[in-house]
């Protein structure tokens, strides 16, 4: 007896299967890394009943990235196994809006972390910068709240655009001016591409600005120490923060290029290019969070204590 399912439903090519396998591996690795950050910070929160600004940002970043990877993986899996189910209203609109919210929120929280490092460690005599340095612990919750509101606003716009595209697509089957409807759809695509590019560019500029300011502060501080023939402990803090932000900057540069490429190739059938782009996009949350772990002594020591125990359990 033949299966009752249509052959199109299970028409998964070797290319799609390979893509899903790689994405699944990256997703679960990234979710484990970010879940580790969240669990360590939550345990510290439970013990001390409070969190510092750095831990608040890391907690928000770990939660957003874990859910982002989860939603992205579900979307990728459904698009391969049940592609027609994504076109059932309003499944695609909901997935797109949730994906957009988590993506923008995680990007902007990452940018907030770089800005936090810059304000906390860099030394400038500017009155506005000194004000930010003093008030940084009060500014961080406002930055996180602003990131939530902005990401929510863009996710609503993404849902509205997807809804309009869905209605226009249904109108194509009706008699009318096909050229006029096509132009309207193209305008909607341009609008969402502009909004997406703006969000990516804003977070990327924040990372660039933080890296340049911290680099300039490090250079000026080092010059002053050489002139005065003195050693300062803040030099080590500058160098450590600079290494972290430079690694963020390099990864963000590649990630920014990949995100822009997703906008360019999203309307084209460039499967190989999109596969390479999404391979890095899915790996970015896990690798970046791993760098955060090794740049944080508390997280690093906790991870190093856990790994030998896991090896003993495996034996």
TrEMBL record:
GO terms for cellular component: membrane. Keywords: G-protein coupled receptor, Membrane, Receptor, Sensory transduction, Taste, Transducer, Transmembrane, Transmembrane helix. Coiled coil: none annotated. It is a multi-pass membrane protein. GO terms for molecular function: bitter taste receptor activity; G protein-coupled receptor activity. The keyword Ubl conjugation does not apply. InterPro entries: TAS2R. Pfam families: TAS2R. Its main location: membrane. It is found in: Membrane. The chain crosses the membrane at residues 15-46, 58-82, 94-119, 139-159, 189-216, 245-266, 272-295. CDD domains: 7tm_TAS2R. Belongs to the G-protein coupled receptor T2R family. This is Taste receptor type 2.
């Amino acid at each position: 007896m033949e299966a009752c399912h249509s052959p199109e439903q299970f028409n998964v090519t070797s290319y799609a299967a390979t893509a899903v396998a790689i994405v699944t591996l990256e997703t679960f690795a990234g979710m484990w890394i970010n879940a580790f950050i969240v669990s360590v910070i939550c345990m510290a929160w439970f013990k001390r009943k409070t969190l510092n600004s750095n831990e608040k940002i890391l907690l928000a970043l770990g939660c957003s990235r874990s859910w982002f990877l989860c939603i992205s993986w579900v979307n990728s899996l459904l698009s391969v196994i049940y592609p027609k189910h994504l076109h059932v209203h309003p499944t695609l609109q909901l997935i797109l809006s949730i994906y957009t919210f988590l993506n923008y929120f995680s990007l902007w929280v990452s940018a907030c972390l770089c800005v936090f490092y810059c304000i906390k460690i860099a030394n400038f005599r500017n009155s506005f910068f000194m004000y930010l340095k003093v008030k940084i612990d009060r500014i961080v919750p406002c930055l996180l709240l602003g990131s939530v509101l902005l990401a929510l606003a863009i996710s609503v716009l993404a849902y509205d655009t997807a809804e309009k595209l869905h209605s226009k697509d249904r109108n194509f089957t009706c008699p009318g001016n096909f050229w006029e409807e096509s132009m309207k759809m193209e305008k909607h695509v341009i609008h969402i591409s502009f909004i997406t590019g703006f969000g990516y560019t804003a977070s990327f500029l924040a990372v660039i600005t933080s890296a340049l300011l911290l680099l300039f502060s490090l250079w000026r501080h080092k010059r002053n120490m050489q002139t005065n023939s003195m050693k300062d402990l803040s030099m080590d803090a500058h160098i450590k923060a600079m290494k972290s932000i430079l690694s963020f900057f390099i990864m963000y540069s590649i990630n920014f290029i990949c995100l822009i490429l997703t906008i360019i190739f999203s309307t084209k059938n460039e499967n190989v290019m999109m596969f390479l782009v999404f391979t890095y996009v899915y790996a970015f949350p896990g690798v970046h969070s791993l760098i955060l772990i090794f740049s944080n002594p508390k997280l690093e020591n906790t991870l190093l204590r856990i790994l030998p125990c896991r090896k003993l359990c495996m034996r």
